[in-house]
Amino acid sequence: MGNCTYVIKARFPRGKLDKVYESIMAFWRQGLAADAWYDERRDCCDKWKTIEQLTKEQKVEFTMVKDAFWTEFKEKFPLIAEMLKGIKDHGYVLGVWHDAEYPILLMTKDPSNSLFGFLDFGGHGKNPNEVVMNFRREGNVLIFTDEVWNVADWNPLAKYLKKKFGATAVKWLSEESADSFQDQVRI
């Protein structure tokens, strides 16, 4: 697995993009910070293989770690936490490590792996200010292109751009999905 180029285009009503542009940039920077923070903590739960196999004491410890993770995540990254609400899973059904508001099913071999792909805002190893330079505007359309993990899921991001920032249409595509993908992302 590696990275590939992703593009997302969001159309806004006339004049709306001017009003929300800086907020979107702040949201994107928060996403980059959330991804870096998350990556530093991913291995916190490697010792728990399946919830069913845990002793009573391990379940208590597991719950404390999980709760501490989500509490800190929501405090540090409120916009990203809001975007993640309601995401069900990546299709993994090996076990559950979730918060009531964040019903994300996680792989219990590495329960902390589940947010991969949902937190990929591009810019691996770059300064967040460099990453937001990858945005461009064409009239009422905001376009972002960058290298992203090749199986990242930008559906929650697309929905959030509509819900939070008022985009009327959002489409995204990766280069692995199409040949001339830049031209195929029409909104």
Order of the strands making up the biggest sheet? 2-3-1-4
Number of helices: 6
Number of strands: 4
Largest sheet: 4 strands, antiparallel
Mean pLDDT: 77
How would you classify the quaternary structure? Answer: single chain
Question: Rg to the nearest angstrom?
Answer: 18 Å
Count of the domains: 1
Query: Tell me, what's the shape?
Result: elongated
How far apart lie the N and C ends? 29 Å
Strand content: 5-15%
The poorly predicted ranges are 89-111
Encode the helix/strand succession as letters.
EHHHHEEHEH
Helical content (DSSP H or I, runs of 4+)? 25-40%
Structural class: alpha+beta
Short account of what is shown:
By secondary structure, the protein is an alpha+beta fold. It has 6 helices and 4 strands, in the order βααααββαβα. β2 (135-138) and β3 (141-149) form a beta hairpin.
What features would you highlight for this structure?
four-stranded antiparallel β-sheet, 187 residues, elongated, alpha+beta, 4 strands, 15% strand
Compile the SSE list and pairings.
Elements: E1 3-11, H1 16-41, H2 56-76, H3 78-84, H4 128-131, E2 135-138, E3 141-149, H5 155-165, E4 169-174, H6 181-184
Antiparallel strand pairs: 1-3, 1-4, 2-3
Helix pairs in contact: 2-3
Describe the structure.
39% of the residues lie in helices and 15% in strands. The protein has 6 helices and 4 strands; from the N terminus they run βααααββαβα. The protein has helices at residues 16-41, 56-76, 78-84, 128-131, 155-165, 181-184, and strands at residues 3-11, 135-138, 141-149, 169-174. A 4-stranded antiparallel beta sheet has the order 2-3-1-4. The protein is elongated.
